[in-house]
Specification:
Oligomer: single chain
Shape: globular
Number of helices: 2
Radius of gyration: 15 Å
Order of helices and strands: EEEEEEEHHE
Helix content: 25-40%
Largest sheet: 5 strands, antiparallel
Number of domains: 1
Number of strands: 8
Length: 122
């Protein structure tokens, strides 16, 4: 499976197979929001998400500025779902390494703890 990486600043994509894609001016940007990460985790309040179709990469890309992550998918919902999974994976990884984080990552974890709720604890 080819993974597509999105560079927010240059509006380009790079894939694990070495292909590089870029967004054209006329590609649609859809503004949405993300609230549910998984069945067990959700956000206290929705975060804004931009969804773009890349004709070169042939997929939707969902990107959020809050955590600066992205997800891709063949549908807008798939891209949002993957984005939620990636944010949660980042959060759980940071929690596993709590005592060994550099200050920047510790701050990120604290911010995430304020925003992410486990369903059984809400």
């Amino acid at each position: 499976m080819e993974m597509v990486l999105f560079n927010t600043y240059a509006n380009t994509f790079s894939s694990t197979s070495g292909n590089e894609y870029s967004l054209t001016q006329n590609e649609q940007i859809i503004v949405s929001s993300l609230n549910k990460l998984t069945n067990d985790y959700h956000l206290r309040k929705p975060i804004p998400v931009r969804i773009r179709w890349s004709s070169q990469a042939r997929c939707y890309v969902a990107h959020d500025d809050t955590f600066d992550w992205y997800g891709t998918g063949q549908t807008q919902q798939e891209a949002l779902s993957e984005l939620g999974s990636i944010i949660l994976e980042d959060y759980l990884d940071l929690q596993r390494w709590t005592g060994k984080l550099i200050p920047e990552l510790h701050s990120k974890l604290q911010r995430m703890k304020e925003m992410i709720i486990h369903a059984s604890k809400s």
